[in-house]
């Protein structure tokens, strides 16, 4: 049987989850500027005061959503670097995971909102960088580990990882984000993954 003092905690957690879910929907549909805490509260079925109890400002709420969005792009433990596996196979798994994320409409919509909000508000853009800048994506972590193990030839793993990201996002993110191009189909994603990994290993392998 649940303890009485567990019930308020669970209720608070449910309200917080409802606020985040409603905020994501509002930011996706209306954009950053048009979204208000009143709209989020109404969509979540809570009072505006409850929203502010969880998040002191719209910026703070938006940044929390971005943190969760960013976390979805970080590879899990099963994608950590392994010294006993071929480099290409590991890189293909990492790149394919990245392509699945970039193909997620939920992720793409929030990324579009984040870019637009950052362009409109340099302060918010700076806050985003400060909050997310100390995180490290799975690809970067993997490249750093492979370089430390002597299997990649680079003195600058961060730059090498950025180049790999660019090889993926060049055809699979920025055209869709900035020019409304359709998402890549499975064959195109495979072509991007093969090309990016082969070019990366030709330079650093």
From TrEMBL:
* Residue ranges: DNA binding: 36-55
Please provide, alphabetically and separated by semicolons, the GO molecular function terms listed in this UniProt record. DNA-binding transcription factor activity; transcription cis-regulatory region binding
Keywords from the named record: DNA-binding, Transcription, Transcription regulation
Claim: Transcription is one of the keywords in the record = yes
Query: Domain HTH tetR-type, which positions?
Result: 13-73
Q: What is this protein called?
A: TetR family transcriptional regulator
